[in-house]
Amino acid sequence: MDAFTLTIWLVRIAFVLCLYLFFFVLLRALWRDLRTTVASTGRSLGRLVVVASPEGMPVAGSSIPLDAIMSLGRDVNNSITVDDAFVSAEHALLTFRGRAWYLEDRGSTNGSFVNGQRIEGVVPLGYGDELQLGQVRLRLERDRS
Amino acid sequence: MTGVPVGRPSALGAALRRWGIRPRLRTRELTLLLLAALALTVGWISLASFRAGSITTGDPTLLAGYLGMLLAIHAAFVLTGRRTDQVLLPVTGLLGGLSLLLMSRLPQDLASQDLGFAALELAPLQLFWLAIALAMMAVLAIVVRNDNWLREYKYTWAAVGVGLLLLVFFLGDETNGARLSLRIGPIAGQPSELLKVILVVFLAGYLAENRTLLARTSTRVGPISLPPIPYLMPMLAMWGLALAVVIVQRDLGAALLFFSVFLTLLYVATRRFAYVVLGLALFLVGAAVLYLLFSHVRTRVDIWLDPYVDPLGTGYQVIRALYALGRGGILGTGLGAGLPAVGDTPAIPAIHTDFVYAALAEELGMLGGLAILGLYGVIAERGLRIAVQAADDFRALLAVGLTLVVVVQAALIVGGNLKLVPLTGITLPFVSYGGSSLLANAIVVGLLLALSDRGVEPPPAPTTGRRFRRIRGEG
């Protein structure tokens, strides 16, 4: 076997090895994704932490566990009653659709704010975002577990 | 999974944002792309050196152009900053690159086309189609943020699909006994490739709307219980469509693909195993009738059962493919060293379209062949993951359907190459030569990428069907 045949054989093997190197890195990435998914299922959807609430309902510093659909407003029939002079009876709707939270204003007088910006229509939320209805400020947090 | 937003709050940053540019690094995609580029470069050197008889890179223009294109798309994804899947681009990019390698290796006169500005042969032509397909994929992945244009117009899409079918029937050309291609000016295309995407869009829309009704049981036939008869009609219509494609277009592959994708989607939407049983029964009846009535179906099945009955005639293609696989062995003969061509005629007829897998498996061996199959497995995993994470039924079903279309097609043709199932004339997605096939599969991956973005517009708020609303007095 001369030097050229040997070299070309090595290049050939190197090509197949490169394909498998790609494949190995790919599978490692998929495996990592799978692990994070498994770790995150079964956990609850999240909670709202009350950052500020001048009129005391809900109590500042308390944390509220969340269901998939949460209505917010001054009316007692809401899932979360926010008793504040600047909050409408049916103020906003917080929904978990598939894998993300969305906030929707239900035509409130003073509007709903996400991170200080007034929202229009349905907006997606991330964990850590701060919502404001009237004078009440709430932070959406992932449950620690 | 998602990249890190880069860029400090600065004047430049503000200016960029005003133009819709929000850079977000995609490190995983970049790593995988660089590894794919490394593999393709080594493959190119292997091919060029074998041909030249000394270690050389040959003329790397085509490869450089292709890799540059992949990096440009990566750059576009980074600059627009959408949080889409980072695995699909490198995987399809590697498959396309392998296709380019193989097309450079095969005799160049297998295909040629005068594009007006230049007359191209096999490898440059495939690069041209790859460029158009990848651009299409990138545009879909970047621009599509809203799926209403697919969701709301499902019957329009179905009409477009049926229209395409009729157009092919009346105006199509015949190649190899199948009426498949449609010629517009100098460009000939195969609409059945596009038809599969349209079909998935329609089925996803239809099933997402009616899945609760389809999952109910009210009719009982012996031991299996079925949903109300009117809702079975679409299933019969699909079966009829598949039969029509076989009879009219003589296109077994497309028919098999359509029907299997339909059955799987129906099962995914309803979780009713009775449908699968019923569908398989319909399939067996249809297959038996077609086998008895139509000679082109009978030939395919007979070749599959025993190609050695007519080794130099009908069985030639399959037998040559089996020999090629055997010659390849475990490590392969090496790129350029196989026997895809005797002199200037290809050893396996249709080696650049239907039998690419046999050609690659000969030169890369069983190891290379398994790696290629694994890449399709990865596409399946990503697609189904996108479906699981989708925000609502329509998106989930759409993602499942799009994934199936690519993966089932690959399985059917690879199975045909290996004499595992009867050979059907369809392409190996992203690897076979052909503009229509590349374009249709790129549209599929582009839509999957767009669906994988978690920052897109939310789907319309969940509503019950129109019928239920009317019952509850809300309509």
Mind sketching the topology for me?
The complex is a heterodimer of chains A (145) and B (475).
Chain A: H1 3-40, E1 47-52, E2 63-65, E3 69-73, E4 80-81, E5 92-97, E6 100-105, E7 112-114, E8 117-118, E9 122-125, E10 130-133, E11 136-141
Chain B: H1 11-18, H2 27-52, H3 61-80, H4 88-105, E1 112-114, E2 119-121, H5 122-143, H6 148-151, H7 154-171, E3 173-175, E4 178-184, E5 187-189, H8 191-215, E6 219-221, E7 224-226, H9 233-249, H10 252-270, H11 273-293, H12 295-305, H13 316-328, E8 341-342, E9 345-346, H14 356-388, H15 393-417, H16 435-452, H17 466-471
Antiparallel strand pairs in B: 1-2, 3-4, 4-5, 6-7, 8-9
Tell me what you see in this structure.
The complex is a heterodimer of chains A (145) and B (475). In chain A, strands 2-1-11-10-7-8 form a 6-stranded antiparallel β-sheet, with no helix packed on it. Chain A has a 5-stranded mixed β-sheet with strand order 4-3-5-6-9, with no helix packed on it. Chain A has one helix at 3-40, and strands at residues 47-52, 63-65, 69-73, 80-81, 92-97, 100-105, 112-114, 117-118, 122-125, 130-133, 136-141. Chain A starts with a helix and ends with a strand. Chain A is an alpha+beta fold and 145 residues long. Chain B contains 17 helices and 9 strands. Residues 462-475 of chain B have low confidence and may be disordered. The relative contact order of chain B is 0.12.
